[in-house]
Automatic annotation (TrEMBL):
<dbReference type="GO" id="GO:0015408">
    <property type="term" value="F:ABC-type ferric iron transporter activity"/>
</dbReference>
<dbReference type="InterPro" id="IPR050093">
    <property type="entry name" value="ABC_SmlMolc_Importer"/>
</dbReference>
<keyword id="KW-0547">Nucleotide-binding</keyword>
<dbReference type="InterPro" id="IPR008995">
    <property type="entry name" value="Mo/tungstate-bd_C_term_dom"/>
</dbReference>
<keyword id="KW-0813">Transport</keyword>
<dbReference type="GO" id="GO:0015697">
    <property type="term" value="P:quaternary ammonium group transport"/>
</dbReference>
<keyword id="KW-0406">Ion transport</keyword>
<keyword id="KW-0408">Iron</keyword>
<feature type="domain" description="ABC transporter">
    <location>
        <begin position="3"/>
        <end position="240"/>
    </location>
</feature>
<dbReference type="Pfam" id="PF08402">
    <property type="entry name" value="TOBE_2"/>
</dbReference>
<keyword id="KW-1003">Cell membrane</keyword>
<keyword id="KW-0067">ATP-binding</keyword>
<dbReference type="Pfam" id="PF00005">
    <property type="entry name" value="ABC_tran"/>
</dbReference>
<keyword id="KW-0410">Iron transport</keyword>
<protein>
    <submittedName>
        <fullName>Putative ABC transporter ATP-binding protein FbpC</fullName>
        <ecNumber>3.6.3.30</ecNumber>
    </submittedName>
</protein>
<dbReference type="GO" id="GO:0016887">
    <property type="term" value="F:ATP hydrolysis activity"/>
</dbReference>
<dbReference type="InterPro" id="IPR027417">
    <property type="entry name" value="P-loop_NTPase"/>
</dbReference>
Length: 360
């Protein structure tokens, strides 16, 4: 791997304080985009800052392209400016008294003038703002300023680009288009990048690999498809997408093993074998809103408790006769009233089960 973060911990204050980052390991291949995702306070920014060298790792090692950047056991900690790492922060902090071109050229002072100007022009072209070179930052929109911040960070050819919530001060529409653009720019320039966000759509739009953090720990480090369809923990399953945990039981269905669920028996497949030994064969099945299909011919009926319009679809909150609650995405031309009973069935491609939690 190009970037290796090995069992890194970050602690603020006393050695015995709870770790903000607790023995986290991740790796990125050259040119890959990694995203750290998780709720506020889970430690994403602290991990990013440890990679940047802005925080000292209390334990673990960080290496990049064969160089050791941090090694807590050996007491080694390279200063941020010697790590060949570029950074883009949330508040894009362009220098207001410099032009756009001067901002982009800020880290290139050591280059001969002609080379420097060529690099500035190339970076401005990369972010689609070649025409804005002579403007002042305040003459640009928020999204344009953030693209200049990106050009400025990429100009000195960092080996790794770190981005901390780069779009959080922008409005939702702009965020989505910039996320797509950012991915194209990073891929076109072959940049290896690690980005922090709490927005899962942004993480999925950008990341080749996404890490979900919770209470300082890394719960899973995987591609977006795997995170969604094969969450490794109950926390990841609950944090990503819409879904519920339905009580289920491993039992025989006409002699074949099956999972008995409130929506009927579901058979395992070679790809998704039925779970092995749950105590008493009881477990909980993750049922995502897109695993539950509206079907008037189904014998299973559910009452609509709530519905949220999402344009192309509704997100229905449903209650079965037995009291279990489910979520379902239903095309928005199926506009049923709250309180109405509709037919539903399960269409589950991936059986994801967890041990049943006693207190639930
Ligand atoms: N400089 C600091 N001094 C003391 N504690 C800190 C410091 N920075 C962060 N923490 C604590 O470390 C934990 C992780 O914080 P961190 O900022 O890394 O989380 P985060 O996931 O990036 O959160 P957010 O999305 O809100 O920025 C939190 O409990 C936070 O209060």
């Amino acid at each position: 791997m190009f970037l290796n973060v090995e069992s890194v911990s970050v602690r603020y204050g006393h050695r015995t304080a709870r770790a903000a980052v607790d023995a986290v390991s991740i790796g990125l291949a050259a040119g890959e985009i990694g995203v750290l995702l998780g709720p506020s306070g889970c430690g994403k920014t602290s991990l990013l800052r440890a990679v940047a060298g802005l925080e000292r790792a209390a334990a673990g090692r960080i290496t990049m392209a064969g160089r050791t950047l941090s090694d807590a056991a050996a007491g080694l900690h390279l200063a941020p400016e010697t790590r060949r790492v570029g950074m883009v922060f949330q508040d894009y902090a362009l220098f207001p008294h410099l032009t756009v071109a001067e901002n982009v050229g800020f880290g290139l002072k050591a280059l001969p003038r002609a080379e420097r100007e060529a690099r500035i022009a190339a970076m401005l072209a990369l972010v689609g703002l070649g025409h804005a070179a002579r403007r002042a930052p305040h003459q640009l929109s928020g999204g344009q300023q953030q693209r200049i911040a990106l050009a400025r960070a990429l100009a000195p050819r960092p080996e790794l680009l770190l981005l901390d919530e780069p779009f959080s001060s922008l409005d939702a529409d702009l965020r989505e288009s910039l996320a797509q653009e950012l991915r194209t720019i990073l891929k076109d320039s072959g940049t290896t990048a690690l980005l922090v966000t709490h927005d899962q759509l942004e993480a999925f739009a950008l990341g080749d690999v996404v890490g979900v953090m919770h209470d300082g720990r890394l719960e899973q480090w995987a591609d977006p498809y795997t995170l969604y369809h094969r969450p490794a923990s109950r926390f990841v399953a609950g944090f990503i997408g819409h879904g519920v945990f339905a009580p289920a039981r491993v039992a025989a269905d006409g002699g074949r093993p099956a999972l008995q669920t409130p929506l009927g028996a579901l058979a395992g497949t070679a790809e998704c074998p039925l779970p092995g030994a749950f105590p008493g064969d009881d477990c909980e099945l993750l049922l995502r809103a897109d695993d539950v299909v509206h079907d008037d011919t189904s014998p299973v009926k559910a009452c609509i408790e709530r519905k949220a319009f999402r344009g192309a679809e509704f997100l229905y909150t449903l209650r079965l006769a037995g009291g279990e609650r489910l979520l379902a995405h239903v095309p928005s031309h199926h506009d049923h009233a709250i309180g109405e009973w509709i037919g539903i069935r399960a269409e589950v491609d991936h059986l994801v089960t967890f041990p049943r939690e006693a207190a639930r």
